[in-house]
Amino acid sequence: MTRDRFAEMHCSIAQTLTVLGEWWTPLILRDVYLGLRRFDELSADLGISRNLLAQRLEHLVEAGVLARVPYQERPPRFEYHLTEAGHDVVPALLTLMAWGDKWKTPPGGPPVRLVHDACGRDFVPQVACPHCGGGIDGHGISVYAGPGAAQGPGTMLLARPQNAPQSEPEGGLDGGREG
Amino acid sequence: MTRDRFAEMHCSIAQTLTVLGEWWTPLILRDVYLGLRRFDELSADLGISRNLLAQRLEHLVEAGVLARVPYQERPPRFEYHLTEAGHDVVPALLTLMAWGDKWKTPPGGPPVRLVHDACGRDFVPQVACPHCGGGIDGHGISVYAGPGAAQGPGTMLLARPQNAPQSEPEGGLDGGREG
Predict the structure, then answer these.
(1) What letters, b where the CB count within 10 A reaches 16 and e where it falls short, cover A89-125?
(2) CA-wise closest residue to B80 among B61, B53, B55
(3) Nearest of A175, A130, A114 to residue B13 by alpha carbon
(4) CB contact under 8 A, B155 and A111
(5) Which of B31, B88, B139 sits opposite A157 (nearest CB)?
(6) Domains of chain A, start order
(7) A61 to each of A178, B28, B155, B175, how far by Cα in Å?
(8) How far is Cα B168 from Cα B42, in angstroms, rounded to an integer?
(9) Chain A residues with CB inside 8 Å of B125's CB?
(10) Residue B163 DSSP one-character state
């Protein structure tokens, strides 16, 4: 199964995809974040089979991203709430949204607008460096093997000797820049 | 096909998933970003079937995320380069990585470390508000229907009357906060 293969990789993108990488899962988390917390609400909004939705929710609970919270005792009924790990997924969802807004915009414009409560402004989520505040755009960063780097499938590049943790920083990859 | 259903949704996360939402695709883009640009290199690193890799690459070229660039004429051979839209995917990949580093960290620590060339510091990518620089963490934002909002599958919440574009801001959703 693909998820199992990803789970074996020494790559945090692959690890994240073991939780988020299946069709529907990001939209389920989006809906829970937006306040649709009950099975029937999610089923009605997403229009997926109840069986598939149940599988996805169960996996998200097992992965610690959603928590089942009882809201009724007889018969027992549950809502799904984001855990701390689940709330941490939201910024990733927002960056996926921002990419779609920019590159797959429908004719009418972005379907959603976001307001940052602290400053009251409409905003487009931006990935930034927390030290200098500079925007991160895929150029201008260098990628090195980290302490948990290891050889294995999907990690050939970082396992190259010149990028091992003990090497000098100038041995780093150029972050995909051309030339 | 799931991708077609997502393509019909008025949701930029769903639209993004029509491009990125399949297993392997984020890892293919990661590898191209890190400098593995040739079919055989990608195939060797990822260990997926050549048929599946070819399908994914073709879709990414059609979607405008990768460009095929010839590097040899006889026989014709191509490399895959990120387009501007492809470079724009990188921040989203980094937020997925950051989530995995935090919540699925291997025993040895993060497999990769990132250095922001402009300030020279190791950094953990953070999603921020471009106006005030404040970090976006899933709390403290309000979500409203945007100009392209429309009723349809997967958009029930934003199609609620109180969240229509013409409504007052205080009609907004609470961003998933409890209580």
Answers:
(1) bbbbbbbbbbbbbebbebeeebbbbbbbeeeeeebbb
(2) B61
(3) A114
(4) yes
(5) B31
(6) 2-97 (1.10.10.10)
(7) 42, 28, 23, 20
(8) 50
(9) 127-129, 136
(10) G
Among A87, A119, A156, A177, the strongest candidate for a mutation testing the B interface, having the largest count of B CBs within 10 A, is A156
B chain contacts of residue A142, beta-carbon cutoff 8 Å:
114-115, 117
Q: Are B162 and B137 in contact (CB under 8 A)?
A: no
Give A-chain residues touching B96 at CB under 8 angstroms: 12-13, 16-17, 20, 92
- DSSP collapsed to 3 states, chain A: CHHHHHHCCCCHHHHHHHHHCCCCHHHHHHHHHHCCCCHHHHHHHHCCCHHHHHHHHHHHHHCCCEEEEEEECCCCEEEEEECHHHHHHHHHHHHHHHHHHHHCCCCCCCCEEEEECCCCEECCCEEECCCCCCECCCCCEEEEECCCCCCCCCCCCCCCHHHCCCCCHHHCECCCCCC
Reported pTM: 0.88
Question: Does A95 contact B91 at a Cβ distance shorter than 8 Å?
Answer: yes
B146 and A109 in contact (C-beta within 8 Å)? yes
Q: Do B131 and A119 touch (CB under 8 A)?
A: yes
Q: What is the pLDDT along chain A (179 residues), one digit of tens a residue?
A: 788 999 989 899 999 999 999 999 999 999 999 999 999 999 999 999 999 999 999 999 999 999 999 999 999 999 999 999 999 999 999 999 999 999 998 888 999 999 999 999 999 999 999 999 999 988 899 999 998 888 887 888 877 654 444 333 343 444 434 33
Of A127, A131, A101, A128, nearest in space to A113 by CA: A101
State the ipTM, two decimals. 0.88
Taken as a whole, chain B contains a residue count of 179
Measured between beta carbons, the chain A residues lying within 8 angstroms of B108 are 147-150
